[in-house]
Request: fold
Amino acid sequence: MRRGCAYSILCAGADLSYAEKNLVAGETLLYQTRHHWIVLLGPVLLSLLLEIPGIAFLVKSIVHKAPKHSASGNAELGAGGLAMIGLLLLVAGAAILVYGLAKRNATEMAVTNKRVLIKMGLASRRTLDLMLSRVESIAVEETFLGRIFGYGSVIVRGTGGTPEAFFLIAHPQEFRRAVQEQTGQAPPTVSQSS
Reply:
């Protein structure tokens, strides 16, 4: 039984990735990657922009016990209203962060001894299964920051097919190297002569 799973029948395969679930007989998973953590920067920043004011509203609602009246006689927003706004902002911030994490984890790229497998998407899914013998080329594009932090774009081209681009992938050079090692396209090593 898997750890943390009370009913092994319901949880069978729950820990397996898309590539692991779709291996065929005699196929071995050699390399696997996904979106780089940098794709979470947007959701994290947006989440913080909502959660910090949310916490401030909650703190103010605790300090603000009874509604006060202004000079014109209009009631200000009470403690309950401040607490509700604070909770809504916290929930919205948490939802954005969870969505960002789920979207990041919904992208998988794998190399087996027979195929290149790529899966993207949450609600709608896009997959690419390309036999290694049909891989014509794999290009990698990395920006300056991508080289520093280890992310880039991978462009896979099958024989007679259109190029398929996948952006912000973690360790794109290693992914390309894994494919090249399996197809026999590994770049020659440069020997240094003295």
About this structure: The chain has two domains: 16-35+107-183, 41-102.
